[in-house]
Amino acid sequence: MSVDTPAAPVPVPAPAQAPAYVVAVRALCDFTARAGDLDLRFVPTPTAQEGVAGHTLVTGRRGPGYQAEVSLCADFGPLHVRGRADGYDPDANRLEEIKTVRGEAAVPDNHRHLHWAQAKIYGCLLCRKLGLPGIDVAVVYFDIVGQREHPVVQHFTADALDAFFVQTCERFLQWAQAELAHRQARDAALARLAFPHPAFRTGQRELAQAVYNANRAGRTLLAQAPTGIGKSIGTLFPLLKAMPGQGIDKAFFLSARSTGRGVALQAAQALRSHGAQPLRVIELVARDKACEHPELACHGESCPLARGFYDRLPAARAAAREVAVRDRAAVRTLALAHGICPYYLAQELVRWSDVVVADYNYYFDRSALLYALTVANGWRAGVLVDEAHNLVERGRAMYTAELDPHALRDARRGAPPAVGRPLARLARHWSALARQADAAYEVLPEVPAPLLRALDDCCAAVLAHMTEQPASVAPALQRFYFDALHFSRLAEQLDANSLFDIQRPAVAAKAGRGNHARLCLRNVIPAPFLRPRFAAAHSVTLFSATLDPAAFYFDTLGLPADCAHVVVPSPFRAEQLSVRIASRISTRYARRGQSLPAIAALMANQFHARHGNYLAFFSSHEYLQQAVSNFTQVHPDIPHWVQSRGMDEAAQAAFLSAFVPGGAGIGFAVLGGAFAEGVDLPGERLIGAFVATLGLPQFNAVNEQFRARMQSAFGQGYDYAYLYPGLRKVVQAAGRVIRTQQDEGVVYLIDDRFAAPEVRRLLPEWWQIDPAA
């Protein structure tokens, strides 16, 4: 079916009393049983792997007749409630709900209330299934650190459990019926949805067809499509078209940058305005951007927006039904009107949204919210990964952990004795490891077991302290705790796809001062961590203008073997872009100082030949500042503006605002930075770019380890570690110039290495290159 052809009529819905709304026991209880404050003092919970291991250990201790993972379900009007009870002992007639905890921390009352609601629902379903008159229900808290069980047992009659089940379902039923009506209206609207513009742009239809087919087939898709063809709406539209026929519950649009999220929200709004009015859209932003009281802790005793959060949540949730596009500003308005936290309200609203616009982390990180909800609720999710070339570096960062000796020193300062002693033991093991050699950089095959045990002891001690005296925990101690916990968990999964390295400052190494060494678990190939994320989705589409060569992304990201691949030809004509290689200039590190006068002269000559707005890209802030200093001394008459370190969103917007139609000047920026991709400056807003250097990662000990690991895994160490990442930055930066089929401009590639055949073959085919600029 063509992506812009209306689908077949939506089937007539089943009678009202036929089970039609499927809800997991956990989701049902989340909705009905949560009460009181938002309390995040106990966020440090076991990992999913630790939880599974804990459940396996507890159930393995039971007798031979014990039944683990008991599938249960029941209907209540249109509700179909389903789930798996952790275990049932027929001899003792005891159902168990197992909850793993890290350390002997007390579980807050509102969490216990939720756990008991789940256990009682499972008890009811089991009594119905087996015809039992009553049953013992146990919530078993298992401490994965001490390997101890703490069971709490109550006996219930089947009638009492049944009454609780009915009461719970009745509380949820009205909401479920409204959600059923919304889903039917949404799917009917999406089935009729037409493309919101008069016609597809060149290449846009081919991209949309590939995305639609991938979602129909439930496959992963790697799609390379040129800049400027409208990839955001060209991917979101076909995914929405596929949702009714494939029973897709959610569309996740994931971006590496806030600008990408903004474009996705605009695309969703355009689709709503052209026929998809029932569509609910939610934007998730980082906690530091959404938090109203960053100086306060996330619990009711500290933050007023956490106090009574779950008591006020139902009213806020109901009000959100009247707000279809819940971007950052809309969620904040909703939250503050009901006196609750905007950040966590947005997370609650994910369950009742159709399109979720968020950062990569929300699906691909270790503790990713969207991935966890997808697995827990059995959602069919269609995932769109914008500017997917960024996922390699971002994936590495998600699964990398570093321990800073200065952070340990700060954590020890003022720590209570119960915490100070394990921190001191950790410091001794740390120093002993660092003193084993005096090399400034060293890679070890594994993290020594004594260091890991000391690290686990520290985590347990800090957690116990946080539990007993949450108000007295120093920020430095808390920060170190989270870093240590992340490091410890990644250490359990260390293999050839990551490396454990030690970095010693040269002075400290010579002096034998091991306590100055940094310890890092550094991910090189994120594929093993990302594969489960691809597998959990109905379909994942990764799209970008720079996904060449495809084998690099297949290998490093761990794409499925049946992943489809499409390359959309460029709609632009070669005569639109003059590409010139400045082959007489070398920007190699040793010659950068000598390159500056020649680069300044080249830029000035081009500016005087054609007045307008230009971007000049340099490989680092240091090189950038050198270039600016040299250029302004020689050409003070040419307007310029400069990217600085750590620019916030307002400063970035101010930088871009200088690129006005009819303007004339040069913006200096960092290659691979905020202005090198995802920036749209069509027409006269930008008529040219200068790209100094190939963008190759710095030659150092760490990157040489990356090269060696890539060589071992894929046989292309230099290309995978240096050449492909560098040339991708260059092509992205050059792609800022031509954004529409009416644009014309020039790009200077400044370095003699751009003329080499192995480099030229990685540049876009539609470019016609002048090698003698």
TrEMBL record:
For the keyword Isomerase, the answer is yes
Q: Name one GO biological process term.
A: nucleobase-containing compound metabolic process
Cite the InterPro entries for this sequence: ATP-dep_Helicase_C, DinG/Rad3-like, Helic_SF1/SF2_ATP-bd_DinG/Rad3, P-loop_NTPase, RAD3-like_helicase_DEAD
Keyword terms, alphabetized? ATP-binding, DNA-binding, Helicase, Hydrolase, Iron, Iron-sulfur, Isomerase, Metal-binding, Nucleotide-binding
According to the UniProt entry, its GO molecular function terms are:
ATP binding; DNA binding; DNA helicase activity; hydrolase activity, acting on acid anhydrides, in phosphorus-containing anhydrides; iron-sulfur cluster binding; metal ion binding
Q: Does the keyword Ion transport apply?
A: no
Tell me the ranges covered by the Helicase ATP-binding domain, including all copies: 190-455
Q: Which PROSITE patterns match?
A: HELICASE_ATP_BIND_2
Q: Which family does it belong to?
A: Belongs to the helicase family. DinG subfamily.
> Could you tell me which PANTHER family the record lists for this protein?
DNA REPAIR DEAD HELICASE RAD3/XP-D SUBFAMILY MEMBER, REGULATOR OF TELOMERE ELONGATION HELICASE 1
Q: What is this protein called?
A: ATP-dependent DNA helicase
Task: Tell me what organism the protein belongs to.
Answer: Cupriavidus oxalaticus
